[in-house]
Write a structure and sequence with these properties.
heterodimer, A: 238 residues, alpha/beta, six-stranded mixed β-sheet, 8 helices, 26% strand, globular, B: 418 residues, alpha+beta, 2 domains, six-stranded mixed β-barrel, two-stranded antiparallel ribbon, 14 strands, elongated
C-alpha cells in the first residue's frame, strides 16, 4: 500500500458522530440517554469511555455499533452514515466494519471456540481453508492454541473472552466496540486480556473503543473520554 | 453459503436440547404415524363400503335411459341398439376391457306370490355368467345353487323372501309386473338357490332371474341398466367422463355410483368429515408441540439471537434460523412418523383388521353390509398429503417464534443482567 493510500485511509475516521441524541420515550418525561454527542475515533486508536452508571456509555456503544437507532444526529462508520440505513444494510455494516466484545462474553454455546471465532468470516462467505488459517494464526497470537474444538462451556472466563476478542477482530473490522470487557474477569485475567487487545491494536492496527469502569482499562487507554449524563464531559489524549 | 450456515446453526440448536427435541419429535412422529394409519384405514374402509355397495347395486358406473333413475319403470329403458352402443363404448375404454366386469340387467318392481302370501319385490333379469364376476350375490348362497342361464324358470331368491313366502329350494312361485305393453304379466319361477346378504330389505325383496326370461316375460329387448365395475373407485370420474364423451346421446345417461347411490356417497362423505375433524385435532396438537418447543427455545435464547444480529445476521436471517429449527424438527418427526406409520400399518395389519369382536352381528350402514375386516389402503398421494400437511404445520407453527426472534430489540437482548 502506498504512503498516499495509507494517509487517505487514515484520513477517514473509524467512527464519527454528529450531534447525536438518543431519547427514550418514558412517563412522565422522556429520558435523554445521549445528548448531542460529537465524537470522532480515528483508525488505530485505543480509546476508553468512562463514566458513572447511567452516564450513557453502553447506549453510545450501541449507537456506534448500529444496534440501536439514534433519535437525532448522525453516526458515520467508514464514510457511511448508518443512522437511517435499512436493516439489511446495517447488518452488513455490522458484519464487515464492526466487532463486538461483550461483558458476558456472549459466545454461541452450540459452536466450538474455533467456530465462534470464525463466525463473521463464515457469514462473509470465506472458504473453510481461509477461515481456519486465520483463526489458527490468531489463536496462536493470543494464546488460545489447543482450545479450538472446545465449546464455550468448557472454557474459563478469560479464555471465553479471548475467543470473543478473536471473533471481534478476525474479519479486520474498522472498529471494535468492547462493553466492559474485563468486568467479569479477575484482575490477572483482565490484565492479560488487555495485553492481548493492546497487542492486536499495535500489530494489526485494530481500532478499539471500550466502555469501562475498570481503572486498569482507563490507565492503558491512550484516549479517555468521560461521559456524564449522556454528554461528553472530557476527552483526553495521552 | 450463508443459508447453509443458517441450516447448520439451526441443526446445532435443535440437537443442543436433544431431550426436548426428542420428546417433541416423538409426539409429532406418533401423531403422524397415527395419521398415516387412520387415513389408510379410513380409505380402505371406504373402498370396502363402495365395493360392497356397487356389487350389491348396479356397479361403479351405470348407463341407463334418461328418466329411469327417477321412475324405475321399464318404459325408461335402453333399446337393444343402445345396449350394443354402450357395450361398444365400454370395450373402447383404455385398458383391458375383458378384465372389467360388465352386467346387462332388466329390473322391474313387481309382486312375488306363493300359495301362502304375496310380497312386493324387485325382480332383476341378469346374465348368470356375468353376475358371478359382477356382484357378490352368488357368493352369498346359503341353500341350493346359483342358477344357470339354460334354466329359464330359475330364480335366485333372498332368504327373507323365501321364509315369508313359505318357500324352499325347488318351490314354485309367481312374479307379476307391468310389462312393456302396459299389461300386468305373470311369470312362473322355481327357487334354485337362496342367498343371504344380511340386509333385510334385500333378503326380503330381491329376486334374480335369467335375463332372457325377464326380456321375454316383460316384452323388452334392451335393458334397464348396463353396469361396469372398475378396479378402484378413484377411476370412476375418468371412466364416466370418457363414456359421456363417447355416448353422445341425449337419451342415454352415464352415472357414477355416487349419483346412483347418494346415500352411500353421503355416508362416505360424513365419515370423511369425521376423519377431517380428527385430523384437524391431531394437526392442532402437533402444531402446539412445535410451537411450544420452538417458542420456548426462542424465549430462552433472546441473548443469542441478539449476538447473532450484532455479528451481522439480519433480522430476516435470524427469523430464518428459527423457522429452520421448526422445519428440522418437523422433517425429523415426519420421516420417523411415516416409517412408523407404514411399518405398523403394513407390517402388522396388511391383511386387514378384524372388528367382528366389536360388532354383535352383521352391521349395515347406508344400505351396505359392512365387512368387519377392514384392509388398510395406501396411496402415494395420501402419504404426500400427510407429509405436506406436517410440513405446513411445521412452517405455520414456527412463524410466530420466528417473528418473535426477528422483532427482537438487539440492544435490549444484549443487556448484561447482574
Amino acid at each position: 500500500m502506498s504512503e498516499d493510500a495509507v494517509a487517505s485511509q487514515n484520513a477517514v475516521p473509524a467512527v464519527r458522530t454528529v450531534n447525536l441524541w438518543k431519547i427514550y420515550p418514558q412517563d412522565p418525561e422522556p429520558v435523554e440517554a445521549i445528548r448531542g454527542v460529537n465524537l470522532q475515533i480515528d483508525s488505530g486508536e485505543f480509546a476508553a469511555m468512562a463514566g458513572p452508571s447511567g452516564s450513557g456509555k453502553t447506549t453510545l456503544l450501541n449507537l456506534l455499533g448500529g444496534l440501536t437507532r439514534p433519535s437525532r444526529g448522525e453516526v458515520w462508520i467508514g464514510g457511511v452514515e448508518i443512522g437511517a440505513l435499512a436493516d439489511k444494510k446495517l447488518a452488513r455494516i455490522r458484519l464487515e466494519e464492526i466487532g463486538f466484545v461483550f461483558q458476558a462474553f456472549n459466545l454461541l454455546p452450540v459452536l466450538s471456540a474455533m467456530e465462534n471465532a470464525e463466525f463473521p468470516l463464515l457469514l462473509q462467505g470465506e472458504s473453510v481453508s481461509v477461515r481456519r488459517a486465520k483463526v489458527r494464526a490468531l489463536f496462536d497470537e493470543i494464546g488460545l492454541q489447543g482450545l479450538e474444538s472446545r465449546r464455550p462451556g468448557k472454557l474459563s472466563g478469560g479464555q471465553q473472552q479471548r475467543v470473543a476478542v478473536a471473533r471481534a477482530v478476525i474479519a479486520d473490522p474498522a472498529l471494535v466496540l468492547a462493553d466492559e470487557p474485563t468486568a467479569n474477569l479477575d484482575s490477572a485475567t483482565g490484565a492479560a486480556l488487555l495485553d492481548v487487545m493492546e497487542r492486536l491494536n499495535q500489530t494489526r492496527g485494530t481500532t478499539f473503543l471500550f466502555s469501562t469502569h475498570d481503572p486498569r482499562v482507563m490507565e492503558r487507554a491512550r484516549r479517555l473520554i468521560r461521559l456524564v449524563d449522556g454528554a461528553i464531559e472530557s476527552d483526553q489524549r495521552r | 453459503m450463508r443459508y447453509w450456515t443458517l441450516v447448520r446453526l439451526a441443526l446445532r440448536n435443535v440437537t443442543r436440547e436433544a431431550r426436548r427435541a426428542l420428546l417433541t419429535c416423538s409426539a409429532m412422529a406418533l401423531g403422524l404415524a397415527l395419521l398415516v394409519f387412520s387415513r389408510a384405514l379410513a380409505d380402505g374402509g371406504h373402498e370396502d363400503w363402495i365395493d360392497a355397495g356397487v356389487r350389491l347395486g348396479q356397479g361403479h358406473v351405470l348407463v341407463q335411459a334418461r328418466g329411469y333413475l327417477e321412475s324405475g319403470s321399464i318404459d325408461d329403458r335402453l333399446t337393444l341398439d343402445e345396449v350394443h352402443q354402450v357395450l361398444d363404448a365400454l370395450s373402447q375404454l383404455p385398458g383391458d376391457s375383458d378384465a372389467r366386469p360388465t352386467a346387462v340387467r332388466v329390473s322391474v318392481n313387481g309382486l312375488a306370490s306363493s300359495a301362502t302370501s304375496a310380497l312386493p319385490v324387485r325382480i332383476e333379469g341378469v346374465d348368470p355368467q356375468a353376475e358371478r364376476r359382477f356382484s357378490f350375490f352368488p357368493s352369498k348362497l346359503v341353500e341350493g345353487e346359483y342358477f344357470a342361464s339354460d334354466n329359464p324358470l330359475a330364480a335366485f331368491v333372498g332368504k327373507g323372501l323365501v321364509e315369508r313366502l313359505g318357500l324352499r329350494v325347488g318351490s314354485r312361485f309367481v312374479v307379476t309386473a307391468q310389462a312393456a305393453n302396459g299389461e300386468i304379466e305373470g311369470q312362473l319361477l322355481r327357487v334354485v338357490g337362496v342367498f343371504r346378504t344380511g340386509l333385510d330389505e334385500v333378503d326380503e325383496g330381491l329376486v334374480h332371474i335369467p335375463l332372457e326370461t325377464a326380456r321375454s316375460w316383460l316384452g323388452v329387448a334392451g335393458a334397464t341398466t348396463v353396469g361396469l365395475l372398475v378396479d378402484h373407485s378413484r377411476e370412476v370420474p375418468s371412466v364416466v367422463t370418457a363414456l359421456r364423451g363417447q355416448l353422445n346421446d341425449p337419451d342415454v345417461r352415464v352415472l357414477s355410483w355416487s349419483e346412483a347411490n347418494p346415500e352411500l356417497d353421503a355416508a362416505v362423505k360424513v365419515d370423511d368429515y369425521g376423519d377431517y375433524i380428527f385430523h384437524a385435532i391431531l394437526f392442532g396438537v402437533i402444531a402446539l408441540a412445535v410451537l411450544n418447543t420452538v417458542l420456548m427455545s426462542v424465549m430462552y435464547r433472546k441473548r443469542e439471537f441478539g449476538v447473532l444480529q450484532a455479528l451481522g445476521l439480519s433480522a430476516r436471517q435470524t427469523g430464518m434460523v428459527v423457522l429452520l429449527e421448526g422445519l428440522l424438527l418437523t422433517a425429523l418427526a415426519g420421516a420417523v412418523g411415516i416409517v412408523i406409520g407404514l411399518a405398523v400399518t403394513w407390517g402388522l395389519f396388511r391383511d386387514g383388521i378384524d372388528f367382528s369382536s366389536l360388532l354383535s352381528g352383521e352391521f349395515d350402514f347406508a344400505g351396505v353390509v359392512l365387512d368387519p375386516v377392514i384392509v388398510p389402503e395406501f396411496r402415494v398421494m395420501q402419504l404426500v398429503q400427510s407429509v405436506a400437511s406436517i410440513f405446513v404445520i411445521g412452517v405455520v407453527a414456527s412463524i410466530y417464534p420466528a417473528l418473535h426472534a426477528m422483532r427482537l430489540d438487539v440492544a435490549e437482548a444484549l443487556k448484561f443482567e447482574r
